[in-house]
Amino acid sequence: MEWHRVLEIFGKGKGRGSGYVIAPGLAVTAWHVVDGLSNVEFRFLVPDDYGLPATVSNWGTACVRWKGTKDLDLALIATNQPFKLSLPCPPIRIARLGGRAPVPVDGVGFPTAAKVGTRTDTYHVAASVQPWSGVRSDTLVLAEGASTTSENKGWAGISGGGVFAGDRLVGVFKSVPDTFDSTLYATPLHGIFEQQDARQLLDDAGVSRLDAFVDADYVARLPRSGTWFGLRADYTRAVLDALCQVDHIGLAVRGVQDARVPALSSFTDRRLRVPGFSQTIGAFRAIRP
């Protein structure tokens, strides 16, 4: 999940919701957030001088390009020009949960309970999903253990936010419980490819579906890309900072062949986009004891 892709959505007469940018000019949200609307307003998080999320942008306008139904609580919104986000946003890949073990997931949105006075704020959900729960209703059941208040309608506003298993988008927060308790629900996103009009929009934007399932083992194997330890890592980081742009969670986003790879993993002749780097790496390997 990338914080700079998280959207706050406001629909006239419909209240607030959340969304997630899945391609330069396309974002996903929940159907009930945009039902009855042809346009919505949105804004996104912007960084401070350290590259960390700090405040929000001005409001922009997006049109509702595709809407699901009450049973398929998904929608797509689009802009004429790419979203002017603080970091690049190439098309993502959508996956489906599998396996039997609980899968760690997370997501960010703008629930009412996170408001400070009149100012909306973010809430980061860290939860787990039992893949065999909610299968008949095609629902992801998120067991979220950090909530401590029963504020009425406290989750309102988080609907439409993306739900991630590691680095794969697997769902969208759907209609929320009345109280700010420890259970949330999400609509699996893989089913959107079965909708012809939505599939065309996704294909045109370069958004694809991952054939392999995402399970607990897949998430556990992902590199901890934001952690740096030891002198060797400090030296590598200094070199990488000079050769490519590294974002706030340790992903190399510019100067690399494959966008958004873990910065430490980008330090190879196969990934850094630097003239002559292959020869340099070859020389280092030749003299290494």
Number of helices: 5
**What structural category arises from helix and sheet content?**
alpha+beta
Radius of gyration: 20 Å
Distance between the termini: 39 Å
Question: Which topology of the largest domain does CATH recognise?
Answer: Thrombin, subunit H
Proportion of residues in extended strands = 25-35%
Text of the CATH class of the largest domain: Mainly Beta
Number of DSSP strands?
18
The major β-sheet equals:
6 strands, antiparallel, barrel
Mean pLDDT, to the nearest integer, reads 81
Q: Helix and strand succession?
A: EEEHEEEEEEEEEEEHEHHEEEH
Strand order in the sheet with the most strands: 1-2-3-7-6-4
Parts with pLDDT < 50 across at least 5 consecutive residues:
283-289
In the CATH hierarchy, what is the architecture of the largest domain at level 2?
Answer: Beta Barrel
Helix content: 10-25%
Number of domains: 2
Overall, the morphology is globular
Short description:
The chain is an alpha+beta fold and 289 residues long. Helices cover 16% and strands 31% of the residues.
